[in-house]
Amino acid sequence: MGCGTSSSTKDRKSEKALKAALVIQNWYRGYSARLKARQRYALTIFQSIEYADEQGQLQLSNFFSFMLENYTQIHEKDPELVARLFGRTLQDSKDRQEYVSFVDVPDSYNGPRLQFPLTFTDIDLLVEAFKQQQILHAHYVLEVLFETKRVLKQMPNFTQVKTSPTKEITICGDLHGKLDDLFLIFYKNGLPSGSNSYIFNGDFVDRGKHSMEILMILFVSFLVYPNDLHLNRGNHEDFMMNLRYGFTKEILHKYKLHGKKILQILEDVYTWLPIGTIIDNEILVIHGGISESTDLNLLHRIERHKMKSVLMPPISIDEDQDTDLKKTKTGANVVPREGKTNESPSEQLPKHEWEQVIDILWSDPRGKRGCYPNTSRGGGCYFGPDITSKILNKFQLKMLIRSHECKPEGYEICHDGKVVTVFSASNYYEEGSNRGAYIKLCCDMTPRFFQYQVTRATCLRPLYQRVNTMESSAIRILKERMLSRKTDLIRAFQLQDRSKSGKLSMGQWAFSMENTLGLNLPWRSLSPHLVTTDKNGNINYMSTFQDIHIQKPVKEAQSTLIETLYRYRSDLQIIFNVIDSDHSGLISMEEFRAMWKLFNSHYSIHIEDFQVDELAERMDLNKDGSIDFNEFLKAFYVVHKLEKLNKSDANLL
Amino acid sequence: MSLHTELVVAEYHRKIKEAFEVFDHEANNTVDVRIKAGAFLPGLSSGVSREIGTIIRSLGCCPSEGELHDLIAEVEEEEPTGYIRYEKFLPVMTEVLLERRYRPIPEDTLLRAFEVLDSSKRGFLTREELIKYMTEEGEPFSQEEMEEMLSAAVDPESNSIHYKDYIAMMVVDES
């Protein structure tokens, strides 16, 4: 029958189409999953290296403690150095007139002009101006900073906020200088106003290129709506962190004449930022997290402005230098007062209070029960769901909202719904690395989450391209890390390679990598990017080092020295920045030597003095007795034979 | 088990562990099938998170959605809590790898599948045609999956999918 045959042909045809569709769908889902896994691996690399860096950062804190403790000896040898390091003259009331009035705004200035007292017009003005890439004049920056400090001083340690059915509140996490994300949030959610409340949960600055602009918009909005725009301090609202993670550099670059003044006031303003916000008496919003000893009642009472920096722990003259958490004595002891430090004991927080603040700013939630030192970051702790329950119950709270950690979806819920992480800097590590998010809350209603992602081009690049970019970026950073530990790695490999064949099994290689680098990464999956394998599946462990090398500034300098310098370059930069108090970018040869020697003895690095001297002398190209240390640091950039250097590397320095 | 198989199994175990750990960001040896709603926030589920499917596929297997569903049922907790424990996942996944189950689609099979859909043998599919097949036949794509595939597959000038080129590009990307 005509009908019959044509319908059976049709059936066969549609059956074939069905099967074909299944094949394509199956293939695609497999491909897409592998793409997402690669993305996840890249993120893991970025995160573990970032936290390892932060750990280094906090170890630096020990270094400064060491210096403070050995104060007298250092002072005798090099009084000027000490004066520079510890003689930070923070007068209580820097005269506002002195700063602001001496900074004139020329008629030729085309940027935004703020009018005090500030109004919502000024917020609009700033937003529009920054969209046009304009820079706010130092005069206005200083005025805003002074005024912000004055108003913040009146605020308690924890801001109390109430929502109502007609008044929701929006909570944003880390922005890290990513202005586009702030603009996107304002675009989707509206500018702050009396009827549109916001909480910004710390880490406004560092890493991104527009930390200043973000800060200005947030501070101006705060000054216009002090009861509706709430700011919490993050671990990056800390002048020491800024020295390392880019904000200091941004300020000095944008404000060549008045940058130093801005930096000085900023240091102060940071310390007056509230520690957290409490919504409707039941939701705690803080930047990092908690520990088992978190005591909100204590935190309400402390003098928060005495918490200067995570790198300036309170000093004590105890014989026993170990940080002993069981000790309850206050750290307010007397420093040997030969020298010039203005940090009198009353200017410090007692040690246990300082630690409470560190916990709030640095801790991370984890699935494992209990409370453990945060070994990745080197400060604060990891807290489990039992700790969350205990602390929330103790202070009659229902939920903790925090930030501090980048999440692929911009937010994450854990600990049975009691802890929410919100992170607002999309593409944090690399384009396509993650979404940003914000939360809208109201009374007893379920929180709502909003996600977004800033895209550079008008149309979003396909996922596979974004993953490729992210992946190559992560691999490059990982290779640099390997390079900085080359000697140790080779030694570890050779220990296992008894037959000196140049080869190791996958298991042996992965073990050496993890142990030497201290990074918990999926080495097996990453191996194709890092090493070559022979046909038996064995690893040629030297192959990593064949396509990259550190371009040496000086031919004869020995590799270990170069490697060591390269590894500690971030730390060195921080210390140099501290010495270079006039931020001129130059330090004298003497200072370089003295600093290196101190560094040497503290970190137990076995580099001979004469080697450092030789290197220093060679770095001083024009023989004028000073080193441009930015050039010095740049001299250690890693050269990949097979890849071109990404220009965004400038951010990392 | 022969020594060889033992070694193979040991390496599989480590590979599976690595893949699991990358997604187990809470470091508590479980992975979400769904995000669990908490007592304080009822109904706070932001959709299904098929992480376990991603893990399985990232290990080189290509189960269909139906096969994936069955596999998850095998490893899920008795009371579906929404979590999958590593201890249960490991032996099942090791079996899958040893038996070489859910082998990936060879390139030429994929090409022939496209050719079947391209009945007039033009060498390409229009955007509408691909959408129709992918979202109406077989195990249909979600909107997100469809958009994702289109973003890479569609040639913006002709607004069509030249499948031969597309396949070639994807194969290069994976190697």
UniProtKB/TrEMBL annotation, chain A:
Q: Which cofactor does it need?
A: Mg(2+); Mn(2+)
Keywords (A to Z) from UniProt: Calcium, Hydrolase, Magnesium, Manganese, Metal-binding, Protein phosphatase, Repeat
CDD domains, alphabetized: EFh, IQCD, MPP_RdgC
**Matches recorded under PROSITE patterns:** EF_HAND_1, EF_HAND_2, IQ, SER_THR_PHOSPHATASE
> A GO molecular function for this record?
protein serine/threonine phosphatase activity
Which GO biological process annotations does it have?
Answer: detection of stimulus involved in sensory perception
Q: What class of enzyme is it?
A: hydrolase
Origin, by domain of life? Eukaryota
Report the catalytic activity. Answer: O-phospho-L-threonyl-[protein] + H2O = L-threonyl-[protein] + phosphate; O-phospho-L-seryl-[protein] + H2O = L-seryl-[protein] + phosphate
| Record Pfam families | EF-hand_7, Metallophos, PPP5
Tell me which residues make up the EF-hand domain.
567-602, 607-642
The UniProt record lists the EC number as 3.1.3.16
Q: Which family does it belong to?
A: Belongs to the PPP phosphatase family.
According to UniProt, the name of this protein is Serine/threonine-protein phosphatase with EF-hands
